[in-house]
């Protein structure tokens, strides 16, 4: 009888267009980049972290705000059930003092160290890229010996053409995959003229992390690596095809997703972003 009932349900579903509920596209913990709350942290670290917790966010990409020690910030995160799988540090610290990067990573229990900017002049050149490759390979080897993965976070200026690809392609091809991985920033990739989803498909598992960001409609692309902070908008309201990016990220196994909203409107936009992600 059970088999007959099941067959009847299937037949009725086919006839009347019923279907099982679709599985959600976004199935990962909600994370946030600490830079999003840079102004709020200056007023109250505790109150800001309470807000983060209330949003259902359980991961944060660091580092700690300047007005609190790493140890105390880690304690406050733990009290709220928030982990820090990745920590963002400047190029000079990671390259010239990797032991400091390791020290901070150990405090927070971070498995990734992210660098978001390569020093350069008005234009990012092949010479800048070559120096970064050498520096990242060297520092990445030191970090890897301690179980930490160095990730470079694109910022838009790396997508100038070079040979049969871009300078970003050069960075990926010439860094040692044993020591250097990447974090995709959706907004900056798009703003630099790249397709974020296609970038994930092209370089696959070299990407370990992702910044969830969208850019205001009508903003033109360029290679400056900068744009007005008000051009950060809630996911799904800007120019980027977010579902395609998430599908590509899921296919290559990315597990850590950090919402980053640099705009003054982040307090209203982040709840919109989370609602949008839940709706996919």
UniProtKB/TrEMBL annotation:
It comes from the Bacteria. GO terms for molecular function: isomerase activity. Residues 50-279 form the Xylose isomerase-like TIM barrel domain. The keyword Electron transport does not apply. Residues 1-21 form the signal peptide. Keywords: Isomerase, Signal. PANTHER family: HYDROXYPYRUVATE ISOMERASE (PTHR12110), INOSOSE DEHYDRATASE (PTHR12110:SF41). This is Sugar phosphate isomerase/epimerase.
């Amino acid at each position: 009888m059970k088999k007959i009932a099941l067959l009847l349900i299937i037949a009725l579903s086919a006839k009347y267009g019923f279907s099982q509920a679709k599985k959600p596209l976004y199935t990962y913990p909600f994370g946030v980049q600490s830079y999003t709350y840079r102004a709020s942290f200056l007023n109250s670290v505790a109150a800001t972290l309470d807000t983060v917790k209330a949003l259902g966010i359980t991961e944060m990409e660091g580092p700690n705000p300047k007005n609190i020690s790493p140890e105390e910030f880690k304690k406050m995160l733990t009290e709220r059930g928030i982990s820090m799988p990745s920590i963002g540090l400047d190029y000079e610290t990671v390259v010239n003092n990797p032991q400091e990067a390791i020290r901070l990573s150990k405090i927070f229990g971070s498995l990734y160290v992210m660098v978001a900017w390569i020093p350069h002049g008005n234009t990012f050149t092949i010479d800048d890229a070559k120096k970064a490759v050498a520096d990242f390979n060297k520092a990445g080897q030191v970090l890897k010996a301690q179980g930490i993965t160095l990730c470079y976070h694109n910022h838009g200026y790396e997508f100038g053409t070079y040979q049969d690809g871009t300078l970003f392609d050069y960075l990926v091809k010439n860094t040692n995959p044993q020591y250097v991985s990447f974090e995709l920033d959706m907004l900056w990739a798009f703003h630099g003229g790249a397709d974020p989803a296609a970038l994930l498909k092209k370089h696959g598992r070299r990407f370990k992390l992702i910044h969830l960001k969208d850019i205001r409609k009508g903003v033109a692309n360029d290679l400056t690596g900068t744009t007005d902070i008000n051009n950060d908008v809630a996911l799904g309201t800007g120019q980027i095809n977010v579902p395609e990016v998430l599908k590509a990220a899921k296919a290559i196994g990315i597990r850590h997703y950090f919402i980053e909203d640099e705009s003054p409107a982040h307090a209203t936009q982040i709840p919109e972003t989370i609602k949008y992600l839940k709706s996919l």
